[in-house]
Amino acid sequence: MRTFWDQVVALVEQSDRPQGERQARLSGSESAKPKIAPRTAALRARCEDIGQALDHLERVKGLFQSFLSPVSELVLEFEACRDRLEETTARLAALEEAHHDLATRHAAALVERDRLAERAEALAALQSDRTPASGAGAPARAEGSVEGGGRRAAT
Q1: Residue 39 scores a pLDDT above 80
Q2: Distance between CA atoms of 96 and 91, rounded to whole angstroms?
Q3: How would you write 36-64 as a 3-class SS string?
Q4: Cβ distance 23 to 44 under 8 Å?
Q5: Residues 2 and 51 sit within 8 Å (Cβ to Cβ)
Q6: What SS3 state is found at 1?
Q7: Quick one: what percent of the chain has pLDDT higher than 90?
Q8: What is the mean pLDDT of residues 63-80?
Q9: N vs C: which end of the chain shows fewer Cβ within 10 Å?
């Protein structure tokens, strides 16, 4: 990088010289060596500053490239986590739907249980009203009436 800037400085110095000095230098006259003008010194300082800035940019570029790999890994991990989150969200939605269905079925089963309990109580009350106080055949008839009542109630 430095050799490039040295070449730039040399070109600037050559362009800063008057035409006569350039020709004298080309002719080989050593006595006509130009002195560095203040403008050339300022340009040289600017070129050196630019060279240092470019060196700094190269270091920054190296740091940036060294950070690319970990950032890339973080992005991949983020995408994997996002995919797992979407999958987990879908599973949760399916579980919530299944829970809702089971809760509905449970509520229907409780209603059916309560209705059957009421019918059983009604049958028990009906059986107690029809049961005779004495006799050997009475329990057999009571059993038959419960079965018959149960069939009628169920239909």
Answers
A1: no
A2: 9
A3: CCHHHHHHHHHHHHHHHHHHHHHHHHHHH
A4: no
A5: yes
A6: coil
A7: 44
A8: 92
A9: C
